[in-house]
Amino acid sequence: MNISIITTQEEHYKYSQEICETIELSALLRGTGIAKRTPEYIQKKMESKDAIIALDNGKFAGFCYIESWEHGKYVAHSGLIVHPDYRNLGLAKQIKSKVFDYSLEKYPDAKIFGITTGLAVMKINSELGYKPVPFSELTTDPTFWAGCKTCTNFEILQSKDNKMCLCTGMLFDPKEKPKDPPKHPFNTRVLNRLKLIKQALFLKK
Question: How confident is the model at residue 182 (pLDDT cuts 50, 70, 90)?
Answer without folding.
Answer: very low
